[in-house]
């Protein structure tokens, strides 16, 4: 990967871009929640989740111009147990398959451990999403569980793999 990857906080101004990305079939098919993604829903997400500190959401930017290509977040932040659930998507098709997601995951884990003082960051991924699993492993996540028929999506049960990264510094 040649382009420098950075993260910046997501803002309300990013809403239309995020909605357009999330509604692409190539992005949506990897989400457990398949409900249509709307502008109103995203603005409500910002109000009820981001603004309340239950979620930290960042934009993934690349290159000297810091062009946004996707988003990463940690949701359901549990301060007592020092953990949260990781999520990512690359919205720009030209940015997929270049290691940008792996770099973004490393940056977000660093932020979670150093700034948010979390001990554990976990994720759920479809068991057949091999590219994502490989990327998560490169970023520092480890497989912890294989959940057979865990979710019912688009008329069929799907297997899920749970992965997590632990803060080894704290």
Reported CATH architecture of the domain at 5-119: 3-Layer(aba) Sandwich
Mean pLDDT: 93
Number of strands: 7
Low-confidence stretches at least 5 residues in length (pLDDT < 50)?
A: none
CA radius of gyration is: 15 Å
Strand content: 35-45%
User: Largest beta sheet, briefly?
Assistant: 7 strands, mixed
Head-to-tail CA distance between termini = 30 Å
CATH topology of the domain at 5-119: Aminopeptidase
What's the helix-strand series?
Answer: EHHHEEEHEHEE
CATH class descriptor of the domain at 5-119: Alpha Beta
Q: What oligomeric state best describes the polypeptide chains here?
A: single chain
Tell me the name of the CATH homologous superfamily of the domain at 5-119.
Gcn5-related N-acetyltransferase (GNAT)
**Helix share of residues?**
25-40%
The structural class is alpha+beta
């Amino acid at each position: 990967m040649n382009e420098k990857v950075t993260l910046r906080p997501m803002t309300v101004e990013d809403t239309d871009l995020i909605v357009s990305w999330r509604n692409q079939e190539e992005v949506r098919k990897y989400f457990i929640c398949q409900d249509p993604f709307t502008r109103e829903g995203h603005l409500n997400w910002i109000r009820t989740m981001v603004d309340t500190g239950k979620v930290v959401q960042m934009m993934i930017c690349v290159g000297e111009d810091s062009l946004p290509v996707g988003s990463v977040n940690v949701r359901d932040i549990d301060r007592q147990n020092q953990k949260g659930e990781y999520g990512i998507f690359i919205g720009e098709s030209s940015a997929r398959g270049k290691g940008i997601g792996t770099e973004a995951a490393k940056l977000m884990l660093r932020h979670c451990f150093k700034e948010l003082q979390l001990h554990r960051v976990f994720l759920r991924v479809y068991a057949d999403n091999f590219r994502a699993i490989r990327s998560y492993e490169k970023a520092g996540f480890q497989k912890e569980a294989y959940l057979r028929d865990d979710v019912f999506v688009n008329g069929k049960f799907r297997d899920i793999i749970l992965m997590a990264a632990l803060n080894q510094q704290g």
